[in-house]
Protein: DUF1682-domain-containing protein
Organism: Dissophora globulifera
Amino acid sequence: MASLLGSADASTSPASDAYFETFQELRGRFGYEFMYVSIIILILATYWVGKKHNEVLAKTTMAVMLPLFRANFARVGDNGAELAIDAPHEYIIYLTGRRHVATVHGLIKMKPRQDLIRTLLTFFSSPVQDTCTLNVTMNPNEYSDGVFAIVPKATGTSVRNKYYDLSTFSKASNQKTLDSALITLTESNELTEAILPLVGDKLNKAAQWLDYFVVSDQPSFKPEKVPTEPFPKRISLSFRLPNARHSREIVPLVEALIACLDGLAENCHVTALTKAKISKAREDAGKEIGKKAQAERAREQEEKRLREKREQEKNLSPDAQRKLAAKEEKRAIKKRQKAVVKKA
Ligand SMILES: *[C@@H]1O[C@H](CO)[C@@H](O)[C@H](O)[C@H]1NC(C)=O
């Protein structure tokens, strides 16, 4: 331990000592301990600096959103903390207590700057971004069902493909009133006419940071079973974070989200015809899910049957097993012949 400490001292002030002119000399003097200790110091320094960097970014981002949150929600945060840390690169936002809204769950997710290994690994995978996502669960039945989104043109297709509701129900279209970098994904022109005026100008102001803005009555990932009750209605906003000095740039995006809280209940009511169309689309999607669930059940039953059969066969005498195999083969040949006849 004494030598470990000794080399740690040396590595913090190596330059001051003319004796250690090269790394090789250092290693010769201290062996591999010097290397190990340097790596440990590097990991610890990365942890400390990275954690601090992320903390500042998360807190600054929250600080620019906080006045909007406080003005609109009776409760900001949980257990006394407005922003809860979940990991050194993940901070949780929770809001509740507002007309038309059930809850808001948010997450500020940043690069894992505190983690040297993961940071190095991200150089080889797709780049990780600093993002903030706000998911609003709205009260049911206060405005029309439907799927509407505003996304960047450049990433719109991949966003649409990633989410079940967008890919199943919406189509892309250009809008004159939107920034040229943005497009809408919408289920109906009537939805676009109702929602775009609420948010368009605000999203235009910070178009460069937007990942997606979604109003939806359908889940973002494909359900496994046919639903027995309506899905919760939601608004989701996701954006990338500017660095802490420019955090204010994202404020118009959050303002757009806030504008929808009252705006949807006031403005988003489609005509009976469109309502019927939207409802039909959900029925069709439900049938699709039902069919798939049924096929899945049938497959599971078949697998179970085969498993049980194999179990039974294992318990037979060798002679009986041989007889069974012969019988099965005959049956298989007959089946093939029948198939050939059918084709002919
Ligand atoms: C927000 O919703 C998206 C899509 O449903 C989901 O992937 C994400 O985990 C949610 N985030 C939070 C913080 O709830």
About this structure: The pocket of 2-acetamido-2-deoxy-beta-D-glucopyranose is lined by residues 105-107, 133, 135, 220, 236 (CB under 6 Å). The CA atoms of residues 168 and 179 lie 25 Å apart. The beta strands are 75-76, 83-87, 90-98, 101-109, 131-138, 148-152, 171-173, 182-186, 210-216, 234-240. Confidence is low (pLDDT under 50) at residues 1-16.
